[in-house]
Amino acid sequence: MRRENSKFISSLYFRGLFPNVIAVLGGTVNVFFDGIFIGRKLGDAGLESVNQCLPVYLLLCTVGSLYASGASFLSAHAIGENDVEEGKRIFQGVLLDALLVGGGFCLLGFVFAGPLAKLLGTAVSIPYVYLYLRITMIGGIAKIMLYIPYFYLRLEGRDKQCMTAMLTMTVLNIVLDYILLFPLDFGIGGAAWASVTATVVAAGMSFFFLLSGNGTFRLGFQKLHMSDRAAVFRFGSPMAVNNMLSSARIFVVNLILGSMGIGGLVSVFAIANNLNEFSICIQNGVPQTGAAMAGIFYGEKDSKSVRAVVNIELLSGMALSFLSGAVLFLFPAQIGRLFGSSADCGFAVRCLAVSLVFSTMNSVMSYSYNAVGQLAAANMVTVSRGFAATAVFALLFRGLGERILLFYPCAEISTFLLLTACSFLFAKKKCLTPFYLLDDTLEISGNATSFAVACNDVDICEASEKIRYFCEDNHFTDKETMTISLALEELLTIITHESCPPDGFMDVRVLAWDEKRIIRIRSGGRRYNPVEAQDGSLMYIGVKMICALAERTEYLSALGVNTLIIYI
């Protein structure tokens, strides 16, 4: 028996990491390729105009992420507490709310595109900004609604379907960008229509994937209660605030750079910012892969598994961001030339490269704090890195000329130091573990244990025998001890033979809490519930015995794995 459950969690996490990073890349690459194609076709003025439109684009992302991330965390918590119907209700309520609010937001943006263009653009770029904004707002509701299946597909463990939709959007956007900008010569409007068309197609595909098949969530509309809406906004606030502050950050930095009177500096920032948006696939893709897992584990009061998820995210995020940062640092001039700009962006690209490891760690911890309900800490990290630290360092470095771009690494490093220091203050105040901000009461008291078991008969027998020590330490009755030992051996054996791959692992958690005796078995493989599948054959005699001894059993499918819970 493996006393640690990190093996199962690692396999579950890395199964979804690559598809999710690609999915996030599909959501951000539109801006990146718009910048490349427009820069090559229209020069620095066109490149600057796309960057000047980005604040409004990010406001669309703010609305979508506010609803989708908040609702998905609430649904994950509900599923972790074995209340699947509540998770469905939240989903259907958010569908209606996001559609109405998002539609109103896009209508206002379309009507007031003129004043927005004058606010965001310069004398040269205003016509470009105006046209780009008007077209973006026509398809803005698709961008907002795309977030909902994007988050809920991951909650169901359907990362590959999410990746397929986003890759389709990426490829379609690139192809249409080229066709509409070069052969058809539609100008900046062509780039905007390319993004809108690709987003509409991706949204349609994502909803089709989510609502078809045997998934948990179904199309329907319910009115959210005020308390529901408040909870959605509270849990969605870190990601939404991040998008909103990113919008404000770009606007403020553009103002500061424009006021310095250094030719080409705004377009240099536009290139660095496009690269930063591209790197979001790592900064956000890494923690988003584990966000639903952490939310469900938190609902199960399994802080050990939450910590394992966070550790995996930190290690994989640091490795990926270091590699991508090294490429940027070594080849800044070549990367800058992709955008067709004549400005020297080498120093700016290297500043961004140095910041990537810290930005990814900050993002991981922000998502983690959000998943475990530590919203004050999550928002503190978001506000610091998203706007406050960047604005402060940009103002401090204004006299350094082109070296003002040092605000990239300084903002992320200072945020990480602030995060670390404040986490100890939060932990001391709330009696939580430092840095992770988790409640380890059950583990420390010995009332819970978690471990992974390999899918073979030897490990299963060993797990069944050794779990007796946990039962004795927690004063289980002989009947309870026998039931738990039998449940582990019989259920793990039949799950191994009927569902799990031969080289797979099962995650087991036994809990003695609030006068309850609970076993949770989580396994991969095909969808399979041994309690529901039992028939009159000898193979299911052990399952029948367990059902007779247990108070009740529950089954759910989330994260693409089977979860069986036995209450004794």
Total E-strand runs: 5
Secondary-structure element order, as H and E?
HHHHHHHHHHHHHHHHEHHEEHHEE
Cα-to-Cα separation, first versus last residue: 23 Å
Report the radius of gyration as a whole number of Å: 25 Å
Q: What share of residues is helical?
A: over 70%
Global outline: elongated
Strand percentage lies at 5-15%
Q: Tally the helices: what do you get?
A: 20
Main sheet overview: 5 strands, antiparallel
Specify the structural class: alpha+beta
Task: Strand order, main sheet: write it out.
Answer: 1-2-3-5-4
Average pLDDT score: 84
Structure description:
- The model has no long low-confidence stretch (mean pLDDT 84).
- The longest helix has 75 residues, at 6-80.
- The chain is of the alpha+beta class and 568 residues long.
- The chain has a five-stranded antiparallel β-sheet with strand order 1-2-3-5-4, sandwiched between helices.
- It has helices spanning 6-80, 84-111, 113-120, 126-138, 140-155, 159-181, 188-211, 226-259, 265-283, 285-299, 303-330, 332-337, 346-371, 375-396, 407-430, 441-445, 457-473, 478-498, 530-533, 541-549; strands at 448-454, 505-513, 516-523, 552-558, 561-567.
